Amino acid sequence: MQYVDEFRDPELAKTLLAHIRHKVSAIAKASERPLQLMEVCGGHTHAIYKFGIDQLLPPEIEFVHGPGCPVCVLPMGRIDGCIEIAERPEVIFCTYGDAMRVPGRNGSLLDAKRRGADVRIVYSPLDTLTFAEQNPDKQVVFFGLGFETTMPSTALTLQQAKRRGLTNFSIFCQHITIIPTLRSLLEQPDVRIDGFLAPGHVSMVIGTTPYGFIAEDFHKPLVVTGFEPLDILQALAMLVDQIHDGRCEVENQYKRIVSQQGNALARKALDDVFELKESSEWRGLGSIAGSGVQLTPAYREFDAELRFNTQEHQEVADDPLARCGDVLTGRCKPNDCPLFGTRCTPQNAFGALMVSSEGACAAYYQYRRGLA
Amino acid sequence: MCLGVPGQIVAVGKDIHQLAQVDVCGVKRDVNIALICEGEPAELIGQWVLVHVGFAMSIINEEEAQATLEALMAMSVLEHEVGDFIGINAGADDAVR
Ligand code: SF4
């Protein structure tokens, strides 16, 4: 496939690996303890395991799997809210497939479907508008979930719903934004990260400028990164070069998709439809100020939680043994969690990191179980 | 859920509210182009775009793609010349394919 196969060339991968090994061996601090490089995005976590990139790297480099997987940070209380709406008899509840198996207090959306709720997996939010038009006697609700990558498609769908005057369509808004969470992560004293691989497709929307504070205020190097093996290896080489040279800059490896200013049309749609919410809860990380969005007054009539007047679902305390938050911040590896592989498996997940194919625990379980 | 696939625009409607057709690996898909179309939709025909959840999210910058690959190839030639190939993982070929 064009723009995919070229970025998987094994010869070029070898070159990059040689470069990384060579450079890292000259970084003094890496010989004392491994460099911790955080791949923020779950798409990167998945690619790193799928292509075995972590096993090709020298021992001086360790990945920290960051909070950039919207399914992995989805709090139980939010799933409970979705289920409360989905179980109403007049509702067709539509979601991306990834969110189906995330456990809430009363099970997952999949469990609700088994109990008889009309829960449908959609590929695109546009499909939900068709459902609304075809089912005028039903209420169609879309579970709007994700970072700036999926936000514009939700925004455009809402703009269309408004233009078409749909009164039986609404969204359950769980859109969150990564920048405040990266800041709060960097402010925690015991989190030790030496550099960041920044999410390629969030950056395609927001551009590279919003990451400036990571280099300027926190003095960490950052490289915006694509999703093919050569993209990830090249970005690692760029990070290691920065650390080697003592530089802290925002660099862009994914220039074929990401520009400095991002996608202005997408951001315009976001400004029309969404506004910042005071604070949002992240599973495993707690509440983070300014990290989520809600609908603007002009679109509030499409807010499913207002339409169905749902209860405030309590923050649900996770099992104290679960170490989801520590995995998300690099304080431990998935298999250090006492529930890993026992009470928490992909078939019967306790934490959300075990559910999504982009979650660190699921990737670890699928590709690294048995290798110590 | 945040990945996308590259595809080439093969047909467009009259305005941005009509879906365009994108060829993704030989399969035609209907895709919304409102996030990438600033002028006439017809100008997009032949362009490569990144498709995500039914929306074209970004026009792929072909020159930048080429420049990235050329930089990698130049690096490869250089590394060969320096003979700096110590300790390459024997499994590398299989794992990165
Ligand atoms: S194994 Fe399960 S409970 Fe433990 S950190 Fe991973 S997702 Fe959380």
UniProtKB/TrEMBL annotation, chain A:
Q: Which domain of life is it from?
A: Bacteria
* Record flagged with keyword Metal-binding: yes
Record Gene3D superfamilies: 6.10.20.100, HypD, alpha/beta domain 1 (3.40.50.11750)
Entry similarity comment: Belongs to the HypD family.
Q: Which UniProt keywords apply?
A: Iron, Metal-binding
Gene Ontology BP annotations: protein maturation
What is the organism lineage in this UniProt record? Bacteria, Pseudomonadati, Pseudomonadota, Gammaproteobacteria, Enterobacterales
Name listed for the protein in its UniProt record:
Hydrogenase maturation factor
GO MF terms here are: 4 iron, 4 sulfur cluster binding; carbon monoxide binding; iron ion binding
The residues forming the signal peptide are none
User: Pfam families attached here?
Assistant: HypD (PF01924)
UniProtKB/TrEMBL annotation, chain B:
Per the UniProt entry, what is one GO biological process? protein maturation
* GO molecular function annotation: carbon dioxide binding; iron ion binding
Matching entries from InterPro entries are given as: Hydgase_assmbl_chp_CS, Hydrogenase_HupF/HypC
- Matching SUPFAM superfamilies: HupF/HypC-like (SSF159127)
Q: Which PROSITE patterns match?
A: HUPF_HYPC (PS01097)
Superkingdom assignment: Bacteria
Q: Which family does it belong to?
A: Belongs to the HupF/HypC family.
This chain's protein is named HypC/HybG/HupF family hydrogenase formation chaperone
Organism, as annotated: Limnobaculum parvum
